[in-house]
Amino acid sequence: MPLSRLSVTAVRNLHPVTLLPSPRINLISGPNGSGKTSLLEAIHILGLARSFRSTRLQPVIQYQQDSCTVFGEVSQVAGGVSKIGISRNRQADYEIRINGQNARGTSELADVLPLQLINPDSFRLLEGAPKQRRQYLDWGVFHVEHRFLPAWQRLQKSLKQRNSLLRRGRIERSLLAPWEAELVASGEQIDAFRQEYLQQLKPVFESVLGELADIDGLTLSYFRGWDRERGLAEVLDSQFDRDLALGHTQAGPQRADLRLRVNGMNAAEVLSRGQQKLVVCAMKIAQGRLLSLMERQRDCVFLVDDLPSELDRHHRQALCRLLESLDCQVFISCVDADSLSECWQADTPLSMFHVEHGHIVQTE
Ligand SMILES: Nc1ncnc2c1ncn2[C@@H]1O[C@H](COP(=O)(O)OP(=O)(O)OP(=O)(O)O)[C@@H](O)[C@H]1O
Ligand SMILES: [Mg+2]
Fold this sequence. Notes:
binds magnesium ion, DNA damage, 364 residues, Glutathione S-transferase Yfyf (Class Pi), Chain A, domain 2, binds adenosine-5'-triphosphate, 15 strands
């Protein structure tokens, strides 16, 4: 599902531009501060309605402009295109349009344009809080299991209600019962979806990592957020007094995590920076590959910001080869296009874009 057309207006320093990207590899080069990351950010906003650089969209809007807009045409598996657009003004009003209609939520965008981002912050997936790894995991589950989103919404609602009752203190246990029932039902469903997905992801991840790097003894395991031996209802019951004292729910899928270990030790504490980047790339590429395998031809778009950083020549090459082998659309930024010139097979459809002071020009 590649982007066949992309228009960007008033995003950071970028001059208004319309691009016709290659359905495969797109290389974006240019000096520091020219606007390469801003272009990837624009695509990210189109797929997720948020930036990867700041929690708010306000800083993304070009100085002296009132709003920014990104518009794209996404080729669909069944033929035809989906037209998606998003604009955001300084008053924080959003408009998301999909095929001429206002979209109800950002999950609709994500459905039309599944994105995977790899950037210099991605190592946080290993060393950051569990929330990052849950988001990673749930990206995959969301795209392959359509029952995940409603279950996740039910979980959020019941958790919020239970926590707000807990914070009131000295409450009747019966008041919690309906919310707990909902929490248990949706929580166990989410756990089952996550487990099933991981079972399929693990062998793909191992094979991708093997193609990319030589890291012995790396294991990926899943913690579901509560005791493996007991049901969630029983755990909520046994931890009730503690939950009441703390004012929130301790156990459940909201506490799930993925654990990456090397010979039993936390991967983030033993791997080098470059190795961490390779592991994160393998995790994300594995998700993309699995999506293409599971949902016929539902390919995601990869955004790889500053691909060469932290990687030696051999590993750059291995990463490019892998990205090429995916058959997905990829946008790669780098300061100097020559640093990747030897990485591509002669017959790979490659488009090159050069950015200077916010001007994007297609050079090949
Ligand atoms: N809201 C904004 N309006 C206009 N310009 C902005 C805005 N926010 C940031 N900039 C500028 O946009 C420019 C482009 O930044 P960007 O991060 O895209 O560069 P880059 O090409 O990725 O550089 P690097 O190689 O250093 O990563 C920077 O000079 C930055 O100061
Ligand atoms: Mg950059």
